[in-house]
Amino acid sequence: MSQEKISIKNGNGQGITLSAIINFPEGFDKNKKYAPVIVSHPGGGVKEQTAGLYAEKLAENGFVTVAYDASYQGESTGEPRQLENPYIRTEDVSAVIDYLTTLSYIDTENIGAMGICAGAGYTANAAINDHRIKAVGMVSAVNIGSMFRNGWENNVKDADAMPYLLAGANARTADAEGGLQTMPLAPAKEEDAPNEELREAWEYYHTKRCQYPTAPGWTTLRNLTQIITYDAYNKAEAFFTQPLLAIVGSNAGSAWMSEDLIGRAASTDKTKYVVEGANHMSLYDGEGHVGEAVSQLVPFFHKHLS
Question: Which long-range contacts (CB under 8 A, 24 or more apart) does 85-89 make?
Fold first, then answer.
């Protein structure tokens, strides 16, 4: 496997250049056609973390893969920094596809996409909108709107999330007066974590386990005016027709968000695969758990991108 750092002009009207890493399988021949897989990172993550790990492992199994930094994040351009507007994150997936369709060695009829955590939710939303995506893989999927509205374990009513909407609106007013209101996307301190799973999120982003200089772990508070009302699975009942593989940990508090899409999607080919003993975070970088997830993703994408 080899890789190359690339820049992608995002044609979605925001004037953004995405920073990405494209991975090539062993024996790559530019005169042949390859099925690509786009890999989207979690909220607060960057391409050098779990998205890059999965992209490399899929490339080792014959795919051309792209892991990229979301608009406004990582090494991609855009202001304000760390903006996590879910609609833009969804459009980023299609922007990478736009780029891939210009490459002579890409099989544009067989494009796959996957993501981890919120990146999986954005990938699902992109697939609903953009049917150039022919197969979707999800690992520890999070529908970021549902998570913020309903809580990690789906125990909060929608209407009770109104204070978040108001906080987002107030942050926009404060931003307009100067400065930038921020909030953590994962616990900023170990003691802030409400449970072991989210303690691992702190550990992943803020210790040597997987911290990275371009992933500071915070986002803009103004995002809440988009996130709270966002549904990554909007209209899945009609338009999510592609094959779907959702990989979840048996101990993941977030598993309900994968099950939600499986229940809602119009697709007749949809599978939930459970990694026993895994939680949400161990599927990011746990060697055995990631290996098991990849062992399912590889045949899934080979089957549907051929």
Answer: 85/223, 85/226, 86/118, 86/121, 86/122, 86/125, 86/144, 86/145, 86/223, 86/226, 86/227, 86/230, 86/232, 87/226, 87/230, 88/12, 88/14, 89/40, 89/118, 89/119, 89/122
pLDDT digits (tens, 9 = 90+) for 211-255: 999 999 999 999 999 999 999 999 999 999 999 999 999 999 999
CA 139, 145, 148, 149 torsion-angle sign: negative
Unique residue bearing structure tokens 């490339």: 59
Task: Count how many residues are written for the chain.
Answer: 306
Does residue 14 register a pLDDT over 90? no
Reported as a single tens digit per residue, the pLDDT across 158-179 is 999 999 999 999 999 999 999 9
**Helix axis angle, 118-129 relative to 86-100, nearest 10°?**
60
The dihedrals phi and psi of 206, each to the nearest 5 degrees, come to -125, 10
pTM for this predicted structure? 0.98
